[in-house]
Specification:
Elements lengths: L1 H12 L12 H5 L6 H7 L11 H8 L5 H4 L10 H10 L13 H7 L3 H17 L10 E6 L10 E6 L2 H20 L16 H8 L1
Antiparallel strand pairs: 1-2
Length: 210
């Protein structure tokens, strides 16, 4: 069963392996971390290539240009305050799953009730975001298969979720909230973006589309 799931996930997560940005010349121009000069040029709306690029791809790249309202903000800072850190863990549910380790949601929630422990945990979570590195613990994750419908155990009826270490999970949520706050403030979100927004529900978009 595990072998079948592994093969299924490998096929599912490799579907983009032969798409344009995984192939030359775009692979070399943009690279996988988006730190190349061409990747930065696309954000500035100045992308040009010496290669013959499909016009449809160019249409996509044009959409990557950073909105002027965001550019006017200058370097974006996603500061993590002790107050917001404690508030998050006070509201967190103890039974939330994460990558199996000595740390869990209940551990972090309990630690946030003590000012000194909360300060230590907050600082250790803040450092990777400020300096720009991933701790070794954050490089481990666990794929978990969930049934889309009760009793449907066929591979096609399962979906894969990834469990990250608990503090890594928090860091992702913090960055996501900060990005959405900036996007809302600068009105940079597409009208059809309903997920992760206050007073918006993805199911409403599906109904509107139907």
């Amino acid at each position: 069963m595990e072998t079948a799931i592994l093969n299924n996930n490998k096929a599912k997560f490799s579907q983009s392996a032969n798409t344009p940005f995984y192939l030359s010349p775009l692979r070399e121009e943009f690279r996988f971390k988006g730190r190349s000069s061409q990747a930065q040029a696309s954000l500035a709306g100045l992308y040009e290539s010496n290669h013959d690029i499909d016009g449809r791809i160019l249409d996509v790249i044009v959409q990557w240009q950073m909105p002027q309202a965001v550019r006017d903000l200058g370097p974006l800072k996603m500061e993590l305050s002790l107050k917001s850190y404690i508030q998050f863990w006070k509201k967190a549910r103890e039974n939330t799953s994460c990558y199996p380790s000595e740390l869990s949601f209940s551990t972090m929630k309990a630690g946030a009730s003590d000012q000194d422990i909360a300060m230590l945990d907050c600082t250790l979570t803040r450092l990777p975001l400020q300096i720009g590195f991933a701790p070794k613990r954050w490089k481990h994750c666990l794929d978990v298969m969930l049934m889309k419908k009760s009793g449907a155990t066929e591979l096609s009826g399962l979906r894969t979720i990834v469990l990250f270490p608990v503090d890594c999970n928090f860091a992702f949520k913090h960055v996501g909230r900060a990005m959405m706050k900036i996007a809302e403030h600068t009105k940079s979100l597409a009208p059809e973006q309903y997920g992760s927004r206050k007073r918006h529900k993805a199911i409403d978009l599906a109904v509107n589309k139907a």
